[in-house]
């Protein structure tokens, strides 16, 4: 699993914020286009990232740093479906702004983590990894979705 430094995480967050802000420039048609038959639109992809950023800040980072088990096991499908529904219905600028706010919140939370704490070992779903690796897995999730978006916008 990919080990992350604080600098690499913060750089990734800044890059994703610029990438999503640039989606203001694509056509409304492209914004509402899915990357493949029966798959999510760009709007739905971006819309589902915000609740996960907020979830990381509220329900993952504090527990990782405290060395405590997670309190909440999310219903990923329900969270994703609700976020996708919301982003289908709301204006693009709201979806983008929501992402920028939630990603900035995540970035600020990670900025407050002392660099050495990223090496702390944690157990997540019976798997031992570092806090840096856990946070790095989320960056891989972003990159996966950016590849999907690039299939639509080139």
From TrEMBL:
Keyword set includes Isomerase: yes
GO molecular function: isomerase activity
One family name in Pfam for this protein: DinB_2
Organism: Exiguobacterium acetylicum (Brevibacterium acetylicum)
Coiled-coil annotated spans: none
Alphabetized InterPro entries for the sequence: DinB-like, DinB/YfiT-like
Keyword Isomerase set for record: yes
Lineage: Bacteria, Bacillati, Bacillota, Bacilli, Bacillales
Domain DinB-like stretches: 20-149
UniProt keyword annotations, A-Z: Isomerase
Transmembrane segments: none
Protein name, entry field: Maleylpyruvate isomerase N-terminal domain-containing protein
């Amino acid at each position: 699993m990919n080990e992350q430094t604080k600098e690499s995480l913060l750089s990734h967050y800044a890059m994703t914020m610029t990438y999503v802000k640039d989606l203001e420039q694509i056509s409304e048609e492209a914004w509402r286009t899915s990357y493949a038959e029966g798959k999510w639109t760009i709007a739905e992809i971006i819309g589902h990232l915000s609740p996960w950023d907020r979830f990381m800040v509220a329900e993952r980072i504090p527990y990782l740093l405290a060395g405590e088990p997670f309190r909440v096991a999310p219903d990923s499908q329900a969270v994703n479906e609700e976020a996708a529904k919301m982003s289908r219905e709301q204006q693009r600028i709201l979806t983008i702004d929501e992402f920028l706010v939630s990603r900035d919140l995540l970035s600020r939370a990670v900025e407050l983590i002392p660099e050495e704490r990223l090496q702390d070992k944690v157990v997540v779903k019976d798997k031992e990894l570092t806090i840096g690796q856990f946070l790095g897995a989320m960056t891989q999730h972003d990159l996966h979705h950016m590849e999907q978006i690039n299939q639509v916008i080139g």
